[in-house]
Design goal:
Elements lengths: L29 H13 L2 H32 L5 H55 L2 H6 L2 H43 L2 H48 L1 H6 L3 H54 L4 H18 L2 H22 L21 E11 L2 E11 L4 E5 L6 H8 L7 E6 L2 E2 L5 H6 L1 E4 L10 H6 L7 H10 L3 H6 L17 H15 L3 E5 L7 H15 L3 E6 L10 E6 L2 E6 L1 H7 L2 H13 L4
Parallel strand pairs: 3-8, 3-9, 6-7, 7-8
Antiparallel strand pairs: 1-2, 1-4, 4-5, 9-10
Helix pairs in contact: 1-10, 2-3, 2-5, 2-9, 3-5, 3-10, 5-6, 5-9, 5-10, 6-8, 6-10, 8-9, 14-16, 18-19
Length: about 625
């Protein structure tokens, strides 16, 4: 049995400080967090009412047990004509005792059964809303987030719903109901001193427990942070196993880990001392109050005002009350932690969307796929502009390539076209429609992209290719894989298209991942295609082999090619040279070479680098 005031040590991932993820906080009070939760729970109001009814029934049955014991003992107290009483009355009382015990358990199980749908439904709805909201947030948020911390907030917030409802509905509320029933019986059947002793003991007990628990929270927090730090160092060392071996630093890593463990040991001992103090104080208060109650009851028996059954009933009442209160430290801290975790998840839900659909936005018409950038300026941060008055057009069915050095803003063009961000000046149109005036989903549905850094889902190859068009048949998936020149590789693996690609696709090479991404986009078959360094991870042989397929995929599609290797864009209808966010040159490959400008210099440099050294 877990001791009072102590809960299991959270896993290392629960530490706010060590994880490096700044805790999501708000100025919301605990009551405000509960009010925020209430509408979700109130959808199941009839289940809530039914659960409360069963809870009251369970507590009435529970309180009835000591009353029945009192009657049983009083009945069995020696008196004249005892034989008949023993044959009739005790049997009835015993059966009633068993029925009350069974009723307590039955009502408790019915309460949990009835309320399970409300608890699980509430947790599911909140988690789903958070998930949907996070997908609706801008790319800026997701670039700045720390995934581990964010997913921990969602996980702990969802778990907090269960804990909060469980602790309040199954622990706090039942104890309060039982307390009211017991005090009522004591006040009506006996003198008011029993009530005052009980109330005074409970007030002192709760006050002491809450005060000490709040005080010792700092020691628990320190202990958990040091535990997380020790585990983080161990995991970091194991993940960098090869580096440790390269520098022969096994002993150094062991010393660092041991130092962390020693700090945790000292903090754990200090936390245990405070826990022992809490438990000792609680037991002292319980013992004193029980002695006072029993003294009052035994005095009543001696004076003839009370029976032996009354004495047993008072003692049973006190035990039933103090058993749940013995875990008050755990319950109180769990509720506080659950409220904090739930509030963090609500903070995520309230994050402002940087990019949102305009009121009344309609889907993109889609009849014309001509793209225009009209005097577009954009900066991720005001002090560092990325694009400066950029204007160009990609006619429907034509290919425009953008080249330039790293950091010139090439990939930003694709992000703006996808509307991951909104432009700060100018506008972007598709078929003459400003993309800010139509729905985001329709814009993204019209565009397919092969990004520079391809990340795959930890699922099968077929799943990752079919992600371009969920519901596509195996034949369609294989056709896209053939077009991307990856079908033969997939077929040669033992599991074929059922081969799992691993976390973020790490079981595949860079080139294989890129070809899966190309196949995925080919399967989507959108009217607009973006190749963002699409062949950057391929070797020269594979790059040449796939170029014809990319040209075929771009046939009759409006295509934006973002490239570093100039050899991949020589057939573009127009090439834009972007430097420091400004278009410095534009024209066909031949025209730009004839100009002997910046493009010609880049071409000459790449041609010289391509010459093999002898």
């Amino acid at each position: 049995m877990r001791r009072s005031g102590e809960a299991p040590t959270p896993s290392p991932s629960t530490s706010q400080t060590v994880s490096g993820h700044p805790p999501a906080t708000s100025d919301r009070s605990d009551w405000a967090t509960l009010r925020r939760l209430f509408p979700y729970l109130w959808q199941y109001k009839w289940r809530v009412m039914a659960a409360l009814t069963f809870m009251v029934g369970a507590k009435v049955a529970n309180v009835g047990v000591p009353v029945l014991l009192k009657n049983l003992i009083d009945t069995m107290t020696p008196k004249p004509d005892m034989a008949q009483a023993l044959l009739i009355v005790p049997i009835g009382l015993l059966l009633a005792y068993g029925l009350l015990r069974f009723s307590t358990a039955l009502f408790g199980e019915l309460r949990e059964l009835i309320f399970a749908k409300a608890t699980e439904g509430t947790a599911r709805q909140i988690a789903l809303e958070v998930f949907g909201h996070l997908h609706a947030l801008s790319l800026r948020f997701h670039l700045e987030r720390q995934t581990g911390g964010m997913t921990r907030d969602i996980e702990r917030g969802t778990r907090g719903v269960h804990s909060l409802i469980s602790m309040s509905l199954y622990s706090i509320v039942p104890t309060l109901i039982e307390l009211v029933l017991v005090l009522t019986i004591l006040g009506v059947k006996f003198d008011s001193l029993f009530v005052w002793i009980t109330v005074a003991a409970l007030v002192l007990y709760i006050g002491f427990t809450v005060t000490v628990t709040e005080w010792r929270t700092q020691f628990r927090k320190t202990m958990n942070e040091l535990d997380s730090m020790a585990q983080s160092r161990a995991v970091d060392s194991l993940l960098n196993y090869e580096t440790v071996k390269y520098f022969n630093n096994e002993e150094f890593e062991a010393r660092r880990y041991d130092a962390s463990l020693d700090r945790y040991r000292k903090a754990a001992i200090k936390s245990q001392r405070t826990l022992s103090m809490l438990n000792t104080g609680q037991q002292l208060l319980i013992a004193v109050s029980l002695v006072l109650m029993l003294w009052r009851a035994t005095s009543g028996v001696v004076e003839g005002r009370m029976t032996l059954g009354d004495l047993v009933m008072v003692n049973a009442f006190m035990i039933q009350l103090y058993i749940p209160l013995n875990f008050l430290g755990v319950i109180y801290r769990e509720i506080k932690q659950s409220l904090t975790d739930l509030d963090k998840m609500f903070v995520l839900m309230e994050k402002e969307r940087e990019v949102r659909d305009a009121p009344g936005a309609q889907p993109l018409a889609g009849a014309d796929s001509t793209i225009r950038f009209e005097d577009v300026s954009f900066a991720y941060e005001p002090a560092r502009p990325i694009l400066k008055h950029v204007s160009f057009e990609i006619p429907a069915g034509k290919t425009v390539a953008v080249v330039g050095p790293s950091g010139s803003g090439k990939s930003t063009l694709a992000r703006l076209l996808y509307r991951f961000y909104d432009v700060q000046q100018g506008r972007i149109t598709i078929g003459g429609e400003d993309i800010r005036e139509v729905t985001q989903s329709s814009v993204r549905r019209a565009i397919g992209i092969v990004p520079q850094d391809t990340v795959l889902f930890n699922d099968t190859v077929e799943y990752n290719i079919a992600y371009g068009r969920p519901g596509a048949s195996r034949e369609e998936v294989e056709a896209a894989a053939r077009a991307a020149r990856i079908h033969d590789f997939i077929s040669a693996t033992p599991k074929g298209y059922e081969t799992t690609v691993g976390e973020r696709g790490l079981k595949l090479s860079g080139g294989e991942k890129q070809r899966v991404a190309i196949a995925r986009t080919l399967l989507k078959n959108p009217p607009i295609v973006i190749f963002d360094e699409a062949t950057s991870a391929l070797d020269s042989a594979n790059e040449r082999a796939i170029q014809s397929e990319l040209k075929s995929a771009a046939q009759d599609k409006t295509t934006l090619v973002i490239a570093h290797r100039l050899s991949t864009v020589v057939d573009a209808h127009e090439i834009l040279v972007l430097e420091s966010g400004v278009i410095v040159e534009r024209g066909t490959h031949a025209e730009l070479l004839a100009r002997q400008g910046r493009y010609a210099q880049m071409w000459a440099l790449q041609k010289s680098e391509a010459v093999p050294l002898l």
